Fold this protein.
Amino acid sequence: MEFKVGTSIKKDKTGEALLYFIFEDEHDLSQLDEETKNYIGNVTKYINLKGKLNEVKLLFPMNKNFKAICLAGLGKKNDYKPDNLRQSAASAAKLLKEHEITKFSVMLKNFPEGFDDTIPQSIVEGSILGTYIFTKKTDLSSLKKPLESMTGVTEKRLVKKVIKDFDKGKIVADAVCFARDLANIPAEEMTPVRFGEVAIERLKNLDNVSVEVLDKKKLMELEMGGLLAVNKGSFVPPVFVVVKYNGGKQNEKPLAFIGKGITFDSGGIDLKSWRELHEMKFDMCGAADVLAAIDGIAKLKIKRNIVGLIPLTENMIAGDAQKAGDIIKMYNKKTVEYINTDAEGRILLADAFSYSANFNPKALVSLSTLTGSCKIAIGTYCAAILCPDEDLKNRVIKTGKKVEELCWELPLMPQFDKMLESRIADIANIPLVNDAMTSIGGVFLKNFAPNNVPWAHVDICATANGVKNIPYIQEDASGWGVRLLIKLSDDWV
């Protein structure tokens, strides 16, 4: 999809339709000609257009400058936030696509109280993310044509700024779509090895980026026991992808992003129910998010140093699979009693946490679909954050609010430590009771975090897929967390 900028509807004539946003309590049509304003005023009496959030209507005035006008509601002005615009743009883009209108203009002159750079960026993000599609169907005749171009109509003095914001929105949205693709591709295709290949292919031509894929032989040399243990039941070897982006100062400590990469999770010996197995390709959404976020960060040329650590394996059942009750010796030499083989994600994350010490990070943030309990606790519209450091916790939560990828704090109470005590190992991977299971995942990871490094774990199990009623998110992989990590990197001071 191409994004352009102009200063006049009449002069530029670049679209088949005009997208025009309105507030629920104020239909400002001042940027339209008198004929069109009168037409809309008359028609809206009969179609009952209020301007509520995500309320979109396509009208067909007799106008020589465009065939149709799409009015898109933003809700009440006092409740406005950038995500309202992102949602409304997604709703409008879907409607335009449904009517096979592939080229359109969007009016940017009618937003009150100054110009905010989140406006063009949010419109671009909504338009791209809202019309994203992933399919393996052989008959594509039912699919509508993709949107081809959008032209922002703004004041002459803002043209360069809007171009820059459009570019930023496209980079961010493309990164989210990349994460969605990685997770939506079936597990038989997106194996750990293939993920490593894609990482190299995608990032190889970006400035200041290097990708290293540690294979099974190297992992054995490193004695990365956690990752290797989870992999034992799989015929596909594990890999550990290390992505470095050096956009900051030469001696600046990096931010470390860790993503859980279980490309398919059968549960191992503790086999999952058949009702959920078909969705277990989504257990690598954390890995997809981290790789995609660094792709976006590098393309935006954010002045920060980042290291992405992505351990990848399948968790399968076989004769030589790791058994419940086994003892695993981890990368940091601690021993773990493997009480439940379906609590495997924390095992490879723990190795990645310990391995991150080699890069001396200033802070560590991990994303993973760690616990199904997370969805039960807080639903599907926010992720859980587990973080013992107040400053880092507040940074992540604040950033999440800016991009509407919300994080809700769950406790790391000291009483939880006893729940992971083992009689025969340093720690158990899970307790024998189902209390506070999302928090317990964070308590386990705490034992493997590098000394004196602030860390936060974001459990995206509730938001990684299956999210409903948000126009720019489909029910398959959401790419939730990509925009959070990009913005966190950009805002870090």
Observations:
- The mean pLDDT is 94.
- The two ends are 33 Å apart (CA to CA).
